[in-house]
Design a protein that fits this description.
CATH class: Mainly Beta
Strand order of the largest sheet: 1-4-5-7-8-9-10-11
Distance between the termini: 37 Å
Order of helices and strands: HEEEEEEHEEEEE
Strand content: over 45%
Radius of gyration: 19 Å
Structural class: mainly beta
Number of helices: 2
Oligomer: single chain
Length: 186
């Protein structure tokens, strides 16, 4: 009995120690989006301020993510549009300064692909969303001697589900999210 308990405790320690914290490198990462405008074109943008942390193995399996995106940092290369997006008509950045995501599930779908499910909170509304993920590669950084991982997350959210913007024919309801990450193991 003691051997079984010891073995279980040892295995638990091995699994726990196999997980480490990873942080996004803001200079080499981007949280982007695209939405249809007037049913004929697509407008792209990104958020310039964000903090993304993951807990994962050295091969980036069983990853758990936490994300905090500053709504005031929205950038579509058009100051007038960006100010409108920050207003109460859309993100209401003064009242809701952050968009957050906390993963609740991870499913490996291929050698380098996975599905990430979690709770997305935007504009005071929380909904479960699923994103497709891909590990582009993992290397040892020559300067820091620490692991770095390149990832891409993609998914679609309906902005109306979160009360962002009104129901208008000039804007599409679906927003395509593309998050390119370079994560550094801590």
């Amino acid at each position: 009995m003691k051997k079984t308990i010891f073995a279980l405790a040892f295995l638990t320690c091995l699994v726990a120690s196999a997980q480490s914290t990873w942080k996004s490198d803001g200079a080499h990462s981007k949280v982007g989006f695209a939405i249809t405008h007037l049913m004929i074109s697509e407008v792209e943008g990104h958020f310039g301020e964000f903090d993304i942390t993951a807990t994962a193995t050295d091969t980036f399996d069983e990853a758990e993510f936490t994300v905090d995106i500053k709504t005031t940092s929205v950038d579509t290369d058009n100051e007038r549009r960006d100010n409108h997006l920050r207003s109460a008509d859309f993100f209401d950045a003064e009242k809701y300064p952050s968009i957050t995501f906390k993963s609740t599930g991870y499913e490996k779908t291929g050698d380098k692909t996975f599905k990430l499910t979690g709770d997305l909170t935007m504009h005071g509304v929380t909904k479960t969303v699923t994103m497709e993920g891909k590990v582009n590669g993992i290397i040892t950084d020559q300067r820091s001697k620490k692991l770095k991982a390149g990832l891409k997350l993609t998914g679609t959210i309906n902005r109306l589900d979160f009360g962002v913007g009104g129901d208008t024919p000039s804007l599409g309801d679906d927003v395509e999210m593309t998050i390119n990450l370079e994560m550094a193991q801590q």
